[in-house]
Amino acid sequence: MSDPEKNDPPINRQITPQSAANTPSSPAMTPVRFRGGGFAPAPVRGVGILVFVLLIGGAEWGTRAGFITALTLPRPSDVFATLVELYRSGLLAEHMIPSLTRLIVGSLMGISIGVSVGVLIGLSSWFRAGLVPLVAALFPIPKIALLPLFVIWFGIDEGSKYALIAFGTFTPTVVATYGAVDNVDRTWVRMAQSFDHRWWSIVRGVILPAALPGILSGLRISLAIGIILLVAAEMLGAEYGIGAYILEAGSLYDLERLFAGVVILSALGVTVSFAIGLIERRVLRWRS
């Protein structure tokens, strides 16, 4: 008779770690690298600043070497000297304070209404049926083209500027918000319903937190549009503001002052994006 142990199938043979270690032909066990990072972006510091330094250094070298004419691009060092002079003379504050006030007030109006309407569209079939066609009709309209109309309606003072910025930030916020609400995993909603949670509890505890990443991403676009419309509004009937400063510098063909205004707008955009990034890291820790 044959030995029954030799006829056992391989699946029935149990190999313990001790026996595997004592087997001469067993390969050495090596740790396996964790590969479940989920494509999470790793922070790389200094690269963004390096890009700015290289661009500014290249422009400075090109203007000093003669490859770039002064009529095309001023020296970055001259633009920096203009910014320093603006700060020392107090003109920087005189232009920045009105611009920041207009941007904050107008954006708060447009974003708050836009988020509210977007959530209602995402949650209610009646609001969706009535407002989505209206938003689709308003969204592609160039908001700058409506500036003369807002001047007629609200006057040439601050009212027209607030209204233009609010309307310009409203439509992209609505689209981003109800899109984010639509993308919420309905399994989470059904799970909350199975535990007999109330409607408002589901909205507050499930839908809004899950939609928050999409809403914050939409705010980046909305605030960038708000800065663009701020400059356009200040170029029409504003004595102080970054847009009025750039318009005056352009009419005098003062490239140093013109580029100084552009740098201020760029710094404002970077600051807004950095602030939204801080908010995302604070309120979206659950994604990590």
Could you explain how this protein is built, in words?
Helix 5 (91-123) packs parallel to helix 8 (158-182), helix 5 (91-123) packs antiparallel against helix 10 and helix 8 (158-182) packs antiparallel against helix 10 (199-234). Helices cover 72% and strands 0% of the residues. With 288 residues, it is an all-alpha fold. It has one domain (77-287): MetI-like (MetI-like fold, Orthogonal Bundle), CATH 1.10.3720. The protein starts with a helix and ends in a 5-residue tail after the last helix. It has twelve helices and no strands. It has helices spanning 4-7, 17-22, 47-65, 76-89, 91-123, 125-138, 147-154, 158-182, 186-194, 199-234, 242-251, 255-283. One of its GO terms (cellular component) is plasma membrane. Its main location: membrane. Residues 1-27 are annotated as: Disordered. Residues 13-27 have a biased composition (Polar residues). It is found in: Cell membrane.
